[in-house]
């Protein structure tokens, strides 16, 4: 009889240990799964402060390296630029300094006096005088690009102008984007394809994952965003609070983008200031929004459903 009770006691003891171990392992698996799911639905942001291009001048291959420097004035897109270029055959670096201003990017080589001329210029220039001061400082070479150039025909080369004392000719860079300080907001879709939200959505970034839904007809992905109103701190709304709202991407079942939309909840640029949350739960938020852009105030409602990844304007 004692042996029977001893065997029974040991059996319960081992089962208890086994149950405890399984419970611990199951909790650990759930933890790993939650970490994996969270990491899958995360926007990865990064900035590129420098860039290197390949290209050619009249068929002669070259390499050009550029990086952003200080802001010229109030506009985050208007910056001093420095770098170099060389012909691939010789690899002798030729210094470049210049600026980006609006759509223009202009780069100058002042020869032996590069450092002294550039140092003097950067202490004198303002946004309004920068063009004339650089051009009147006897540059040996000028490289000019229109950063806002757009073509409906997809191209992998960017055209600019190369000018020196002897000639004015075309310079071609092997890229379709010459912005130096690119900001990336990458998001990995369930099919492991990565998209850059800064290209998908117009305007500034600040996108944060909100919800994702796959149903029979389409897939939907919502991001909440907060971003600056104007990159030009001296311009309209430059010193205002952030633009806030939601952005949604509609996909087909193969995760190809069909369309996108944006819904503001606060905005200096669009005159949306008086916003109230009138209903909030784990799955849904309802906003009462007042539009002050016209003579008469317009009021409407915005319903954001997290469970179904839908946004409805009422």
Please supply descriptive tags for the structure shown above:
Lipocalin, eight-stranded antiparallel barrel, elongated, alpha+beta, 314 residues, 19 strands, four-stranded antiparallel sheet, single chain, 19% helix, 4 helices
Describe this structure in a few short sentences.
It contains four helices and 19 strands. With 314 residues, it is an alpha+beta fold.
Question: Can you describe this structure?
Answer:
The chain has two domains: 127 residues, Lipocalin (Beta Barrel), CATH 2.40.128; 129 residues, no CATH class. The N and C termini lie far apart (77 Å). Helices cover 19% and strands 45% of the residues. It has an eight-stranded antiparallel beta barrel with strand order 2-3-4-5-6-7-8-9. The chain contains four helices and 19 strands.
Q: In terms of topology, how is this protein built?
A:
Layout: H1 2-40, E1 44-47, E2 50-57, E3 60-71, E4 79-87, E5 94-101, E6 104-109, H2 114-124, H3 130-135, E7 141-146, E8 158-164, E9 168-173, E10 183-188, E11 194-196, H4 197-200, E12 207-214, E13 219-227, E14 243-251, E15 257-266, E16 272-280, E17 284-291, E18 298-305, E19 310-313
Please give the number of β-strands.
19
Structural class, by secondary structure, is alpha+beta
Helix content: 10-25%
**Most strands sheet:** 8 strands, antiparallel, barrel
Number of helices: 4
- Globular, elongated, flat, extended or rod-shaped: what is the shape? elongated
What is the percentage of strand-forming residues?
35-45%
Radius of gyration: 29 Å
Number of domains: 2
